[in-house]
Write a structure and sequence with these properties.
The protein is an alpha/beta fold. The chain has nine helices and eight strands. It has two domains: 131 residues, HAD superfamily/HAD-like (Rossmann fold, 3-Layer(aba) Sandwich); 64 residues. α3 packs across α4. The relative contact order is 0.17.
Amino acid sequence: MKHIKVVGFDCDGVMFDTINANRAYYNHILKHFGKPCMNSKQLEYVHIHTVKEAIARLFNDDHCFKAALDYSNRLSYIPFLKYMIIEPGLKPLLKYLKSKYKTAVATNRTDTMEIVLSENDLDGQFDLVVTALDVKRPKPSPDPLIKIIDHFDVKPENLIYIGDSSLDEKAAASAGVFFAAYKNRSLLADFHINSLKEIENILS
């Protein structure tokens, strides 16, 4: 894989185990409006979609949706950071990549990404961070990955993207980049990995 110049990461499920954080966050919003906690299908959906898409799924009444979205915009994410678990191989991999590759994040998170990076001592560790706020269409659209390609002025085949969901799979396929599926054998991918350490082996 000597032609790879950029390594891209999804956030939730790749850089961090965030399932419990997302569960606590959206259940808090539901509780605020007197609604029951999410079921497994709802949790699966909100875990990989944008906040707006998640709120729309949980609050299908237009009035309730607007009220819940407004509340989420005012809700600090800080209390939920304690539920996030950084992947143990992330920082060693970033150290390995630093001298040879550009690194980027492409996530459907919105305004929480900055604080997530800051609270985990990852400020400045990525050359580019693309959130759902930075593109017209978030994943599964290829727009976040195309933004990475354009930013570094590389070809699609120069980027490998690490993701764990069907949204990541579809975005990578549409963008024409290499895709490494993280801990998800059900995805169609160029590589399937169970640890971030394996990316070093792929690149070498």
